Amino acid sequence: MIDLKGKKAIVTGGGRGLGKAVALALAAEGVNIAITGRNEDRLKAAAEEIKKLGVEAVYAVFDAADEKATNEGIKTLAAQLGGVDILINNAGIGDFGTLEEMSSETWKKVIDINLFGVYYAAKAVYPFMKEKNEGDIVNVASTAGLKGAAGMSAYAASKAAVISLSQSMMAEWRKNNIRVITLTPSTIATDLTVGTLTDGNPEKVLQPEDFAQWVTDMLKMNRRALIANGSIFSTNP
Ligand SMILES: NC(=O)c1ccc[n+]([C@@H]2O[C@H](COP(=O)([O-])OP(=O)(O)OC[C@H]3O[C@@H](n4cnc5c(N)ncnc54)[C@H](OP(=O)(O)O)[C@@H]3O)[C@@H](O)[C@H]2O)c1
Questions:
Q1: Residue range 130-152: average pLDDT?
Q2: pLDDT at residue 229 above 70?
Q3: What is the CB < 6 Å shell around ligand 1?
Q4: Which ligand 1 atom minimizes the distance to the CA of 15?
Q5: Are the C-beta atoms of 203 and 236 separated by less than 8 Å?
Q6: What is the assigned CATH class of domain 8-230?
Q7: Where exactly are the structural domains of the chain?
Q8: How confident is the model over 18-30, as pLDDT tens digits?
């Protein structure tokens, strides 16, 4: 297993939910952390919590759907950390509704954040990883991207596209010793799923800590091993 201590990770959407849980789990392994998002107060508070684990923690506020801001934000964070070894490409939104109900503006917003956001962040970290000839990129898709469902057209389409994008990324960047991992988690209790749980009980589904443990364990695999994709489900749906 690899010792992650001293590595540098950028976690998009790291102020809450799955991103924050992964940031904390990596920090517990000694990884220096940069988190991003739109809500500065939340990012500041999360960075303080991460620092308590004895690592560096910095943050940048930018909209994942804004290419220029993403490039600038990632460059600044890489300079602050002294490089980037790991990108957790996690920021995303869930906006649900039937095709008939959902406006085309909302549909486009979901694609802009969930698909273009992942593309922009990966492109922004690539030069750092290419130069070092090493890196890990974890692209967070969803089981929703494996099969479309009623009321989920924008979200499912964005995540299906992330899966394809991520597979192409792996095929292109593997030669640079960059492990691109495509994840398709099922329901995990966060703000994104609150209100969508069938029996309304968040205790019955996966918790952010489960996701964080899974991601951390994958990153600790010997570098000869690349987990190309993975799904995680709760035992009792
Ligand atoms: N929870 C699940 O069941 C589940 C299952 C499969 C996949 N996923 C995926 O996992 C990822 C994280 O989801 P989550 O459950 O942790 O959701 P969440 O609790 O709602 O958190 C979403 C995160 O993304 C950030 N974000 C959203 N829109 C952004 C934007 N335009 N620019 C920058 N940051 C933005 C948020 O930052 P701010 O707080 O600063 O806005 C927040 O940190 C998403 O890609 C989601 O699709 C979740």
A1: 98
A2: yes
A3: 13, 15-19, 37-39, 42, 63-65, 90-94, 113, 140, 142, 185, 187-188, 190-193
A4: 43
A5: no
A6: alpha beta
A7: 8-230
A8: 999 999 999 999 9
